[in-house]
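step 4 of 6: structure.
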Amino acid sequence: MKHRTFFWFFLPTGLAMLLFIALPIVSVVIQSVFAPHEAVLKTVENCTPLVGCTTETTIDQDATRAIRDAQPLGRFVGLDIYFDRAHLAVAEVSEAWAASQSWGEFSSKLFNLPLYRALAFTLTFTFIVTPLLIIFGLMIALAVNSLHRHLKGFMIFFSLLPMIVTPLIGSLILFWMVDSRGVIGSALVALAGDPNFSLKASTGLTWVMLIVYGVWHSAPFAFVVFYAGLQTLPKDQLEAAQIDGASRWQQTKYVIIPHLMPLVTFVALIQLMDNFRVFEPVVGFNASAHATSLSWIIFNDLGGETRQLSAASATSVLTILGVAILLSPVLVRTWRDFKGK
Amino acid sequence: MASKAQRMPTGLRILTSGFVLLWFILAAFPFFWTLWGSFKVELDFFSIADWTNALTGERTSATYDSAFTGAAYRGAWIQEEFWRNVINTFIVCFFVVCTSLTIGTLGGYALSRSGYRYTFWLLITALIFRAMPPITLVAGYLLPFFEWNVWGILPTTIIVLVAINQPFTLWMLHSFFQNIPKELDESAKVDGCTQFQAFRHVIVPVMWPGVITTGLFSFLLAYNDFAVTAMLLSESNRTMVPAIAAFLGTTYTEGNVMFAVAAVVSATAPLFILVMFFQRQIVSGLTAGAVKG
């Protein structure tokens, strides 16, 4: 295809991505080094006869508006926003480091800072949910594959539901069930033997609840991919293994799993990217008191009356850097493959 | 195909069947439970006294003389005007799917037919864009959108969702077009067609299976989005998902959680139907990227 033809074919989609993905990234980076203008203050001296003079400090509305209109981005502050308490909190961290006697003390101080708290949950969620859903998805795929033909389609239909349903809706459905007055919640209360038992009350249990949701939501994806992989299983290799006297477990371990390995890498990759952006469950489970994620912080900063664009932008840039770090092994590998071609 | 050596011992068979049954309950039960409960009053669905009330609907019978009531649906659809959000959702989804398929098909076709090095870089860029959480871009949209006075309306959100959709659409359609033999449009060009005519008359008639599958995923992305729609739409233009999130804020205080339950069930129903009719396409779409590695 000629360069010229390619250009015209690619123009609409390229333009859409340039204007609404590439440019916003640039503007997010720019916004993150500007802070909103402070209000201009003016001091007025009121003198009344007999009483004397009082000075009064008020906000100069006109001057404030003038400066905000002149520079809508705000004032340039460099990397200050990145280092403030709501983000990397450099001062607080070094203070905590100096004052802490032990690792435990330091980490408890560290996880009181909003960004580190969110980062701790986001990373825990990503790196616990991803392996669990792969194992769980593989187990479902192996089990469903051994079913009767008619049951398979039926099982695939129902298995797709948790994945296809809107994340916010899926988490609400589960949340209402584990509510202390819901069906699972009251079963748990009966099991715990404590009428005040609630999953929402403790940080640990909230995390477990969110992780269970994460696995429930994403396991179907792994299941479908692995199930498709099982359909292309080389029969002759399995038969050879049987003739050599391999047990069922050995067949699974030495023939089936190696055959599925490229798919495991694929699922792991996609899920690492998707779990890192965990956000809807935190809203759906109303869990922000115990678990926050990077995306949730951005959402929270942007919402409400005071849209804190600078703070949200700085968190966005940090999140993008996190994604880049997660993605780097893949990019390096793709690059090597490409060079090898 | 079940040779004697492949047949499972009874113990293992029971174990796998049990596991499949367990997964079936985990996957399906929450939906049926919520559907059932949405026809009850709050004191039954969230029962303090006895969980079986949710099944029998004791309080519902006491209030409405029947174990089922559509009160929650009436409240959500009429009182809270959920039908507006439903219409908004379908407007957004329709235009997102149409636009993103149109421009995505052109782009994906071009990427699959050009042998130059820059196609590789474009695809890698698209992969990086796909990996970024959409919420990180929202901070970049707000200031210009306020400035140009286009914040809060449906067209803006549609364009943004189309753009966010593009990386995925491109990847998927690129791999579908690669499976269509190049000789097909090459020969049309030999016969004197321009590239676009070759695309229009030769490729378009055979590309529908791939386009339908990609369209399903575009639909799901637009339908399921919460972060972008919640941030970019004004209150009167909200789609279903942000509307449900907004319900939660008000209903917990006003004590009509059942409105939210009814809205959730209403929003799940179209997805249920979608999976029912397009199960095969969804499965093939999920595995398309994977099997090729």
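step 5 of 6: annotate
 - Strands of chain A lie at 34-35, 41-48, 52-59, 75-76.
 - Chain A has 15 helices and four strands.
step 6 of 6: archive
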